[in-house]
Amino acid sequence: MDLRNIAIIAHVDHGKTTLVDELLKQSGAFRANQAVDERAMDSNDLERERGITIFAKPTSVEWKGKRVNIVDTPGHADFGGEVERILSMVDGVVLLVDAAEGPMPQTKFVTSKALALGLRPIVVLNKVDKPDAEPDRALDECFDLFASLGADDDQLDFPHMYASGRNGWADHELDGPRKDLTALFDLIVNHVPAPRQVARAGEDFRMLATTLGSDTFVGRQLTGRVESGRLKVGATVQALSRVGQKIEQFRVTKIQAFRGLQTQDIEEAVAGDIVTIAGMAKATVADTICALAVDEPLEAQPIDPPTITVTFGINDSPLAGRDGKKVQSRVIRERLHKEAESNVAIKIADTPGGEAFEVSGRGELQMGVLIENMRREGFELSISRPQVIMKDVDGKRMEPVEEATIDVDDEYSGAVIEKLTGARKGELVEMKPAGAGKTRIIAHVPSRGLIGYHGEFLTDTRGTGVLNRVFHGWTEHKGSIPGRRAGVLISMENGEAVAYALWNLEDRGKMFIGAQAKVYTGMIIGEHSRENDLEVNPLKGKKLTNVRASGTDEAVRLTTPITLSLEEAIAYINDDELVEVTPNAIRLRKRYLDPHERKRMAKTA
């Protein structure tokens, strides 16, 4: 069957997964009476809860006798490692752009990767039926973006369409019939070239592994595009590393192809198709699976280096082991190395003591997703504050800089600019009206300055601002950047918090816990109203006497405590604090710093 391989790329929440839903429905991938969940491609629990795509997932549809393999990709730059691997499997991309917001930071990130590979994009202006949509402006911004990224003439001459993914239509003209996605299907089939690998069907089998999975019954599974030749079930093949070293030789036990939302067993994989194979014991992502006669590996796309590191350690608090079953450092190490094997954007290193592990990645969201998955699996962990990875270039100390794109109401723009360009050492790049009483601010800010800023940003903008960030480049170290200014309230006792004690402590600051919460010495129970830390006793009850008077017996009414999410807790803490993560709780606490750790932190600052 004639093949087309495409990826759908876009910024977060611009409608990729919703559009894929409609493509599947209108191509006949589902029965007419079949019950299908909204955002069917987001099959992971975390993806459904957060409303974002985390893992790249292939699917396929049939259209007029041709098979179209579609890869739904993550929009957030923290998961850019997924996008960089997936783009090597496809021959074209559909760039989805919100007609109201226009190209955003993550749009720029994934588009630069696609253009660098020579892929010719199709631009789809989505959500043109929104009241604030400006499709013509968004289209001009897409052209400017392509030009700034060094696109060639063929890539600048891109076709475009107007669409509403939720309503299931796409047209070449803004005032088109708005019936279905037929025009988009036809454009994909006609514009995207057939895989050039099809012409190599007579050569030896070769396939570059791009994603790693596992199955309870068949074991390890590798997914990739067949670059040349054919592969049958039962054939003996080998795995070569990036440098050509032979890793293993194995017999292929199963070949699966993507058909709609399901995978289907097939007997033979052909050049150009995207398939999953099983049978290997050691081969992993970026390895070449090939026939025994092949001795040269396929070139794997380089992955951008990590920018932050977080220390994962065992939970050694007094409440350790009460919620989770996986608490030993050995078990944590095995889980982290398993993650690094399938996620090439993550790097793992042991700390000098051997009881903790430095996990390097793209951003706080990527770390938060990994930690959340581990706590749901029964792990207990202690997590440090994220530290930015520095590097030396020609004797100069360099640090990563991020491009922050911010949409805020006009009245809050001054406060945001003051925070970013003041203590956080950012540089204002552009400021322009975004319509509907909003201002768009683009600034280049050191990654250190954005750690922990999001909560402060929401407070400054009364919850109405939108902040997007993406890695921009490296710059010379800009000196010290102050962290959290407020101190914390620290428990000096072990036990259960008493409502009367918390009520009396409310004058001292904001509480993170409620009555009857389990506390221990060194646990952070609230934020102090001043800059210093304060030790308090949350167990102190009211002294009872036999005298009652209406003027002295006041009712205890506690203010609702602040509940920090996992990402908020990690960004909130200082260098001498930890986040204690268990399957049922997220707690903050102070930690003891040994001389080696103090020296490292002083050097980082």
TrEMBL record:
GO cellular component: cytosol; ribonucleoprotein complex
UniProt-listed GO biological process terms: ribosomal large subunit assembly
Gene3D superfamilies documented for this protein: 3.30.70.240, bipa protein (2.40.50.250), Elongation Factor G (Translational Gtpase), domain 3 (3.30.70.870), P-loop containing nucleotide triphosphate hydrolases (3.40.50.300), Translation factors (2.40.30.10)
Any one Gene Ontology molecular-function term assigned to this protein's record: rRNA binding
Keywords: Cytoplasm, GTP-binding, Hydrolase, Nucleotide-binding, Ribosome biogenesis, RNA-binding, rRNA-binding, tRNA-binding
Documented EC number(s): 3.6.5.-
Domain Tr-type G per the UniProt entry, residue ranges: 1-196
Keyword Signal on entry: no
Domain of life: Bacteria
Enzyme class: hydrolase
Residues involved in GTP binding: D13, H14, G15, K16, T17, T18, N126, K127, V128, D129
Compartmental location: Cytoplasm
Catalytic activity: GTP + H2O = GDP + phosphate + H(+)
SMART domains listed in its UniProt record: EFG_C
Family: Belongs to the TRAFAC class translation factor GTPase superfamily. Classic translation factor GTPase family. BipA subfamily.
Subunit structure: Monomer.
Function: A 50S ribosomal subunit assembly protein with GTPase activity, required for 50S subunit assembly at low temperatures, may also play a role in translation. Binds GTP and analogs. Binds the 70S ribosome between the 30S and 50S subunits, in a similar position as ribosome-bound EF-G; it contacts a number of ribosomal proteins, both rRNAs and the A-site tRNA.
PANTHER family: TR-TYPE G DOMAIN-CONTAINING PROTEIN (PTHR42908:SF8), TRANSLATION ELONGATION FACTOR-RELATED (PTHR42908)
Entry-linked NCBIfam families: small_GTP (TIGR00231), TypA_BipA (TIGR01394)
Protein name per UniProt: Large ribosomal subunit assembly factor BipA
Lineage: Bacteria, Pseudomonadati, Pseudomonadota, Alphaproteobacteria, Rhodobacterales
Gene: bipA
